[in-house]
Amino acid sequence: MTSERNILRRELRENFPRDHGQLLPALHYLHHQFGHLPEWAMEVVSWHLGIAASEVYGAATSYTELRIDKPGKHIVRVCTGLSCWANGASDVLASLQSRFDMHSGSTTDDGQFTLEEIPCGFVCALAPAIEMDGAWHGRVSSDDASRLIKEAMSS
Ligand code: FES
User: Fold this and answer.
1) pLDDT for position 47
2) pLDDT digits (tens, 9 = 90+) for 108-143
3) pLDDT digits (tens, 9 = 90+) for 66-86
4) In this structure, which residue's CA is closest to atom 1 in ligand 1?
5) Separation of 103 CA from ligand 1 center, angstroms?
6) DSSP per-residue letters across 16-76
7) 93 neighbors 80 (Cβ within 8 angstroms)
8) CATH architecture of the domain with range 74-153
């Protein structure tokens, strides 16, 4: 871990001036590097930028595109925006939770799936929509969503 910290310190020194305005760019950099924001890495950002760790954590948790916890191998995002909700997103969500023992905002015990709800995926014409590993699927039924999960399980 110490060498990881040292490498990150060097990268931050090289790419991010010690300026408060660099907080979000640095957090996005971490997110890109690790796929989430490990606590130790946020501590390094705090040290590098001279910003309180609580402020770094507060910024990290304020943006839905930034993930604090390590995600599962597959990320399933169910849109729960108005159009999707009105067209059956609640059924799709409930189905995934019960059929695969998934819980919104968490990763399955085997580390295979992270289930998330998002407020609007901006594909409202395709409602209800889910995103599976970055690819959107529209007008999905509960069975469609289950099929996508099973396909991911076998991949
Ligand atoms: S409400 Fe679901 S994509 Fe907009």
Assistant:
1) 96
2) 989 999 999 999 999 999 999 999 999 999 999 999
3) 989 899 999 999 999 999 999
4) 81
5) 20
6) --S-GGGHHHHHHHHHHHHSS--HHHHHHHHHHHT--HHHHHHHHHH-TTS-SSPP-SEEE
7) yes
8) 3-Layer(aba) Sandwich (3.40)
Q: Which residues pair with 77 in a beta bridge?
A: 116, 131
What is the distance in A from the centroid of ligand 1 to the CA of 120? 4
CA distance 91 to 14: 48
> How far is residue 35's CA from residue 56's CA, in Å, rounded to a whole number?
17
pLDDT in tens, 33-62: 998 999 999 999 999 999 999 999 999 999
User: Domain spans of the chain?
Assistant: 2-62, 74-153
Q: Please state the pTM of the whole predicted model.
A: 0.75
Residues with C-beta less than 6 Å from any ligand 1 atom: 79, 81-84, 120-124, 127, 129
Which residue has tokens 């799709």? 92
Q: How far is the CA of 60 from the centre of ligand 1 (A)?
A: 24
- Flag whether pLDDT at 1 surpasses 70: no
Q: Can you say whether the dihedral through the CA atoms of 16, 22, 28, 31 is positive or negative? A: positive
The class of domain 2-62 in CATH terms is mainly alpha
